[in-house]
Sequence to fold (706 residues):
Amino acid sequence: MARLAFGATLLLTLVNISLPLHAQQGSVALRVCNAGKVAIDVFISGSGKVSSSHIGAADCAFVAKSVGSMGPAYVGLAFVDAGGQWGAARRQDLLPDLGLGVLTRANQSVPVRHGNTTVSLPMQVLFQPRVPKCTTYRSATDRLSPFATESERETARRLDANGPPSETVCEDVGYTLNALAYPDSGEITFNNFCEACDKKAEARITPEQRAARQQRSNAVNQEIGNLEATGPLGALVMGNVVNQANQQAKEEEREREQERRQQQPESYQPMNWKEMNLALAHVRPARGRPPEMPQYLIIRGTVSRVDVSPPGATEHWVNVYFRESAEQASTSYETVYGAFNVCTSNAEIFSDMFGPDFRSRMIGQVLEVEGEYQRAYCKGWKGSIRVTLGRQVHLGGSGRFATAARTWVPPSVPPPSAAPVQQEPEMDPGMPSYSLTSKVAGEEILQYCSGLYDPVFPLLTPEQNRIKNTNRAAIESEVKRCASRFDAAEAAPHRRIAMRYCLGHNDYTLREQGGRIKAYDECMYQNDVLTAFCTRELKYRAELDHMPNVADQKCPAPRPNHREALVIRNGGHDDIGHPVVIPSAGPGLPPILLAPMEPGTIQRAGGSTSANAVVSAAAPVAAPSTSAPTTTAGAEPAAPAAALAPSTAAAPRTRAAQGQVDRQQQIAERQKLAQKYAACQQEAVKAHPEDHAELAKAYTACIQAK
Fold:
C-alpha cells in the first residue's frame, strides 16, 4: 500500500501559505522564525500602532494577526551585534518571494520602545499581504434551474434540511519569514527553512501529542488503502496523489540540503585561477554549471576595472573585473568583458569598504569573494558570483587561502599520471538517432526495465496491483538490477555501428533500392540494443493487454534522416582521419537479449508469461555476402531453429507444473489466432484491393469460416 512520506512543514517555507477553509471570516498572519544564534526583535508598524516581539534563537512567533484582510505594515528587525550594540540590521539580503508585492524594501523610520527608552528604528521592509479569498456555497434550492420539476425541488429541499441553506467561507492566509542574523557584520539574510526551529518544536512535543499525530497518519494511510481497494480508478487517483506528495517531499529535502551546504563554511571551495580557467573551459552556452565548477566557491583576484550602471538605468549594478581573468570580446554581449567576474546591485557594499569613490579606489586592490557560482546577473560571460551581503567580500583575503587550506580539485580532472579522459560528444539535434548519447540510452533502458518489471496499473489485474503496491521496494530493486545489466555507454556507439551496417547493406534511401526499407528495419531489430529491448517490452505490454497479435508487435526502427544518411555513407566528424568502412557483419545483440530475462515479482505472481514466449530469444541476422552485398543482404535472415524455439526450458519455474502448461497453451492459442487474423487479412486485401466494403465482408467471412 502506498504511504505518504512527507510531513506538515509547509508553514516553514518562504511561500504564500493558504490555510484550510474553515471559517466564515478569513484571517491573515505573519510568523517570524529565528534561524540564527542570537535573539532578534521584530517590530510591526501599521494603522498608527507599533508592536514588538522578542524571538530567541530557534524560536518562532506570530508577529501580526488580523481577522479578515490586513492593511500594509512596516517590518523592522533589530539585534545585538558583535560589538554589543543593539540596533537595526545594517544591511538586509535579498527579500524572499512570498508572493507578488507581498514584501518590498522600505526606508521608513518609526519610534519604538527599547528597554526604558524610545529610539528611532529604520523599518526596512513593507509587508502587504493579499486579501483572503471567500467562496459562497449556495444551497441546493438556490442552485436549481428556473425550469426545475417539482420532484427536483423536493429533492433540493430534503438536501437543504440536512445542512445550512447557504454559507460563505473565507481562507486563512499565512506567511512565514525565516530570519538569520550575522552579528559580526550586522547583516540579516532570509532562509527557506528553519531546521533549528523544527528540531526545537519537535523536542517540545509530548508523548500524547506524538501518539495523536501517529494516529492521524495511520488514519490517512488507512483511507488511502480503502480508496485504492475500490478499483483501478481509485488506485490511479490515490497513486497520483501519493506520488505527487512524495515528489514534493523529495524536492523539499533537496532544497533543505542545498541550504545546509550554502551555510556551511566547508562547502565553499577555494580556487586559484588555473583551476578556475580549467573549469570555465567546460562552460557551454545556454547550459548551467558544469560538474568541473563547484557550486559554492572562494576566489581571490586583483581588481582591474569597475563598471557602474549609468544614473538613468532602471537597475543599478556594479560589475568588478580581475586582471587574472583576461577580458575579451563576448559574442553574448557584443562587447568586451571578462570570462569571470563579481557583481552586486547594492553599491553600498563597496562604498562602505572603499568610500564614495570606490570605482577608482578599488583598482589594484586584492579582493577575496565567496558565493555561489551563477550566470544570470553579472557580466562575466562564462560565470560570476553575485554579492548580496558585505560579509562575502574581504579586502586582501580572509586567511582562507592559507597554504594549508584545502583547494578545489575538479572531479573529472584525473591525476597527473592518469590518461586524459575522453569526453562524450554532445547530442546533435540534427541527427537524433545517430548521435544518441549514453545519457539518453540510459534513460531508455530504465524506461524499458520499468515496463517489464513495474508495468502500469491498467495492464494488471486487481490482484497484481495489490501485489505491486505491497512489494514496491522489491520491484524498484528489480528495475534497477535490470538496468545495471545493460551498458548505456556501450549502447550509444552500438546504435551507430548498427545503423551503418544495416543502411550500408540495405540503403533504402537510394532510388534503385527503395524496396529495402523492410530489410533495414529487420536488420535493426537484430542488431540495435535499444530497438530490440523496446520491442521486448512492447510485446510484454501487448501480452498483459491480451492482444491477439503479440508476435507482430515491434517498436519502430530508428531510420536515418537525410543528414544522418549522408554521415553514415560518407563519414562525419568522428570519421576524420580514416576511411569510412561499412561493416561486413552486424554487431548483434548482447547475451541478455538473446535469452529469457529473469522473472520479477509481477511475473512470479502469475497471469504473465514474460519469462517465456513474449520475452523470447532473438535470432542474429546472418551476415550478408561481401561479394554481392546489395542482393544478398536484403534476403530474409535465416535464424537458427534453436534461437526461435520457445525458451521455457531455461525459464525458472514460477508456478506449479500445471500452471506452466496452461500458460503455454494460452500463448499457443493466441499465436494461432494472430496467424489466422493475419492470413484472413492478406486474403481479403488480395481479393479486394480497392473495394473497402467488400474487403471487410471477405475478412469477416474468413474469420468466421476458419
